[in-house]
Specification:
mainly alpha, 0% strand
């Protein structure tokens, strides 16, 4: 048994373990492992906290993005509605302008027609007076003719104007 190398390896191992136990190496190893375990746990907690913060930030940015999208759609919709309102107002104003211009033009045409009719009547009355004056002056003579001529001219003018 003393001649076998395995025996001496076992004795050296037991002596080494005893020396480690006496010097407290096992406590140092356990403390080091505990510190390492605590540090890993702290890093995991920190990573979990950072992950949660990142998730919150992502949700916040997505909410802002959705809000901005809705706001942009609202702005576009209100701009379209405003453009349609302005277009309908412009159309109504244009129709009103055209109607007023048409009415004004019709009034001017009616006035011009009335003026032309009055001018034609006046010209016809003057021609009739001149013709009657010529005919009557050639057929009737004297003071009776002058009196008749004045009455006839006055009557024709009164009826034609």
């Amino acid at each position: 048994m003393f001649a076998e190398p395995e025996f001496w390896v076992a004795v050296a191992f037991v002596i080494l373990m005893g020396l480690f136990a006496y010097l407290g190496v096992h406590r140092t190893v356990l403390n080091t492992l505990d510190h390492r375990s605590d540090r890993i746990k702290a890093e995991l907690d920190d990573a979990r906290r950072l992950k949660d913060e990142a998730a919150k930030l992502l949700a916040e940015y997505q909410a802002r993005h959705a809000s901005a999208e809705r706001e942009a759609q609202d702005i576009v919709a209100s701009a379209r509605a405003e453009a349609e309102r302005i277009a309908s107002e412009a159309k109504a104003k244009m129709e009103d302008f055209v109607a007023r211009r048409t009415k004004t033009a019709e009034g001017k045409i009616a006035l011009a027609e009335a003026q032309a009719l009055a001018d034609v009547r006046a010209a016809a009355a003057d021609a009739a007076v001149t013709a009657a004056s010529t005919i009557l002056s050639q057929s009737v003579k004297g003071p009776v003719a002058d009196d008749l001529l004045a009455k006839g001219i006055a009557e024709v003018r009164e009826k034609l104007n």
